[in-house]
Amino acid sequence: MEHLSKSQARRIALAAQGFGDPLPKGSVDARHLRRTIARTQLLQIDSVNVFARAHLMPVFSRVGPWPTALLDDLAFSRRELFEYWGHEASFLPVALHPLLRWRMQRAENLEEGWGGPLRVFKERPDFVNSLLRRLEDEGPSGAGALREAPRGKGSWWGWDDVKRGLEYLFWSGRVTTTRRTNGFERVYDLTERVLPAEVLAIPTPAREDAQRELVRLAARSHGVATTKDLRDYFRLKPAEGEAAVRALVEEGALHPVTVAGWKSQAYLSAGAVMPRWVKRSALLSPFDPLVWERSRTERLWDVDYRIEIYVPAHKRVYGYYCLLFLHEEAIRARVDLKADRRAGVLRVLASWREAEGDVAPALAAELDKAAAWLGLSAVVVEDRGDLARELQAAL
Q1: Helix pair 238-251, 207-222: axis angle to 10 deg
Q2: CA-CA to 250 of 20 to 30 Å: which in 147, 164, 300, 387?
Q3: 3-state class (DSSP) for residue 332
């Protein structure tokens, strides 16, 4: 059985995620966005916008400043991408739609889903079906336009039964997102009116075959990973992920390997590349597929990375929205960032060192690049953190 050092595993992982690819020499266009999504398989969506929205950051991390309107163009004009539950809510290539229909069927059978959306269909199926009929008769709509009364307090996210019902229909695949409003609200429509007919016409594979293909894609995007890492990529259940991994090992698509310091069995994707080095600097958001599986991030880089958005302010260690800083194969720093759009500056609320070495100049350059991408005129570093003084000097 092949043995990999931790450094080798890092380089394989970075190459699989596109960090070994050359940066664009000119302006970024749709080809670069397609190449990034071919590496990551999806872009996780999250509404937090304290720095930049989650689905925009992985592209910036891999190709640098890019016109974010390209994503809307591919998703909502060209219909090359669609929204669905991949890792979490995600933009996915439309070619993956057939591979996720088993999940839609489970939601329709009330076997999969979560909390409110499942509950509202169980308790008020006629109401949810009436929402579907209204979309069919009246055309695309957001949740707000379908409400016949002012919204109450609702859940922690402010959801009411209209929103929950639409999300159930979304999970079961009967509706999808046809566009997003400027306020980032989903506008729903019938799936058959949104996705290309040629995609909907693709035969639905057996659940086991679809899950095996999803794990194959996850392995390609990981390079090297454990079974838990692989099944987490598309949120498969343990038994399903294990069955898919066994099948791919038998097929020769996955090769069992050991990785220094890893307690669990690892698997190397057939065709994975191990460059001699990866010379890249990048800010990594908490929702980047390179680092979203926190235990894998710790195994690869010895970094304990937790998002502290939901931690009370007085208990936060590093900050509300910390991003990791990758520099030449290592995670060398983390920064708590806030885009202060009113003042026109990017605020570094805290900056912390994660590895030895002179990291401040490279981090300063990446922060300058990020500020310009967001249309902000300057970077302001506050005094919190053991890297703050060096970073201030570098800027």
Answers
A1: 80
A2: 300
A3: strand
> Greater confidence, 159 or 264?
264
Nearest to 10 by CA among 262, 236, 364: 262
Full-prediction pTM beyond 0.90? yes
Q: Select from 270, 252, 256 the least CA-distant residue to 227.
A: 256
**Which residue(s) pair with 268 in the sheet?**
224, 255
pLDDT of residue 148: 62
Amino acid at 144: G
What is the DSSP code (8-state) at residue 338?
A: E
User: What does the pLDDT read at residue 183?
Assistant: 83
Candidates 149, 163, 180, 181; CA nearest to 117 is 163
For the beta sheet containing 378-381, the strands, ordered from the edge strand earlier in sequence to the opposite edge, are 281-284, 322-327, 330-340, 345-353, 378-381
Each residue of 90-109: pLDDT tens digit?
999 999 999 999 999 999 99
pLDDT in tens, 30-44: 999 999 999 999 999
Where are any strands of DSSP class E within the chain?
2-4, 43-44, 81-85, 89-93, 175-180, 186-190, 224-226, 254-259, 266-269, 281-284, 322-327, 330-340, 345-353, 378-381
* Secondary-structure breakdown of the chain: helix, strand, coil percentages, each rounded to the nearest 5: 40, 20, 40
